[in-house]
Design brief:
This protein has about 130 residues and is mostly helical. It folds into two domains: about 70 residues, no CATH class; about 55 residues, no CATH class. About 50% of the residues lie in helices and about 5% in strands. It has seven helices and two strands; from the N terminus they run αααααααββ. Strands 1-2 form a two-stranded antiparallel ribbon. A hairpin with a 4-residue loop joins β1 and β2. α3 packs across α5 and α4 runs antiparallel to α5. The model has no long low-confidence stretch (mean pLDDT about 75).
Length: about 130
């Protein structure tokens, strides 16, 4: 799958992602539209999503989030994924604490009682 992502890469896009703070060694340079297209082609797969997440590539992790069968991801899985992505959810260990919009990025995969993800404080369904 990484080879497939690399086939969609562009140096211009990679430079943009690096400029936004994603380390060069963790970026492939794939536009988000291409990642979404791939996700639709592949369909849900927690097994593949976890494998992609473990690569550490920014774009692979974006694809992983789209591939997860969210109702089958446990709270422990979410905690593990977010610790890997952010260093944790407290200021002392977080890599993104200074970026408020990303501070609680794990909200995008926490589901309400209806299986829907929520924005903000959890009162606005996506």
């Amino acid at each position: 799958m990484i080879i497939r992502l690399q086939g969609c890469a562009s140096e211009k896009y990679k430079a943009n992602v690096v400029k936004m703070g994603i380390p060069d060694e963790n970026s492939i340079g794939v536009p988000t539209a291409d990642i979404r297209r791939l996700a639709k082609e592949i369909g849900n797969s927690n097994e593949l999503a976890f494998e992609l997440w473990e690569t550490g590539y920014h774009e692979a992790r974006l694809l992983a989030v789209l591939l997860f069968e969210k109702k089958q991801v446990s709270a422990a899985d979410v905690e593990k994924l977010m610790t890997a992505a952010t260093g944790g959810i407290v200021q002392e260990t977080s890599h993104s604490w200074e970026v408020p919009a990303q501070r609680y990025a794990y909200d995008v995969i926490i589901l309400d009682e209806y299986g829907k993800s929520c924005r903000g404080k959890g009162d606005s369904r996506v």
